[in-house]
């Protein structure tokens, strides 16, 4: 929904945009390498630049766009890329543009072959490589391109764009709902738009609760309950109640742990107890990350609180 069409539609990365505008207007576009996390506007930026560079009817003959669904072996470099770069255009003197989206999926061999193709056709072809992980692009390719890092978007950058979409699509949203979307999408604009759209479609009104429910994230009230059970109930009932809630709402233990961890920082525990609890939670997280059983790790999380409660009791005068 609402993909940016022109460079002006793109928020953020003003410095990158103005640099590219300058290259274009001075007719000095170098080979480009865009990198950064998902949903930060890399693909949108190069497509909008291409739309500015070429008229619609010449677009297909001047721009070759390869993305993840295309093959990424050496054959694609020797085949489509080479033949596109090596044929000269009769219409226009300017250069052609090859966009290699998700270039980090290219094999080493393909990257090496590409480096030679880039060298050979620099006169009439420009390349734009796009990737999430710069380290997966071989140094020889990196050094032939001007690099641009697309960082995660800040809330200040995301909110106006979200508001624009909200207005256009007539979406009913509360300020808390907006805050929840921004928090959950962690700088990924695509994710924020997806959450906005799916919550609005599934629940009509976008609120903090509907956003959290729609994304399968624990609500703040769920987390407050979980902490309350851990601190005040005996082991078995705390464990069973959390398990029941977790199953009912389809929550992931990892999400629960992340939120519980935040709360532990806010609750007023004596320092020694807080430290011991945090270390235990970190251990649970570590084990979860290596793919262990959620049930066993859940009991371990509940046990961590039980152990801490015993400390509190023994410390009391
Ligand atoms: N800077 C931005 N300004 C406006 N919209 C943006 C911006 N970044 C992302 N978006 C929105 O997010 C969607 C995804 O952006 P885009 O495809 O450009 O991201 P990307 O950086 O290429 O991500 P990926 O690494 O996953 O390919 C776009 O359709 C657009 O709606
Ligand atoms: Mg992309």
Model description:
- By secondary structure, the chain is of the alpha/beta class.
- It is about 60% helix and about 10% strand.
- It has helices at about 15-25, 40-55, 55-60, 75-85, 110-120, 140, 155-170, 175-185, 190-205, 210-215, 220-230, 235-250, 255-265, 270-290, 295-315, and strands at about 30-35, 65, 95-100, 125-130, 145-150, 170-175, 205.
- Strand 2 (about 65), helix 4 (about 75-85) and strand 3 (about 95-100) form a beta-alpha-beta unit.
- The longest helix is centred in the last third of the chain and has 22 residues, at about 295-315.
- Magnesium ion binds next to helix 2.
The SSE order reads: HEHHEHEHEHEHEHHEHHHHHH
Named CATH architecture of the largest domain: 3-Layer(aba) Sandwich
Q: Name the CATH class of the largest domain.
A: Alpha Beta
The unique ligands bound to this protein are: adenosine-5'-triphosphate, magnesium ion
Helix content: 55-70%
By secondary-structure content and strand pairing, the structural class works out as alpha/beta
Separate helix tally: 15
Radius of gyration: 26 Å
Biggest sheet record: 5 strands, parallel
Looking at this structure, what is the CATH superfamily of the largest domain?
P-loop containing nucleotide triphosphate hydrolases
Low-confidence stretches: none
Broad shape: elongated
Widest sheet: strand ordering:
2-3-4-1-5
The number of strands is 7
Number of domains: 3
GO cellular component, one term: DNA replication factor C complex
Keywords: ATP-binding, DNA replication, Nucleotide-binding, Nucleus
Main location: nucleus
GO molecular function: ATP binding; ATP hydrolysis activity; DNA binding; DNA clamp loader activity
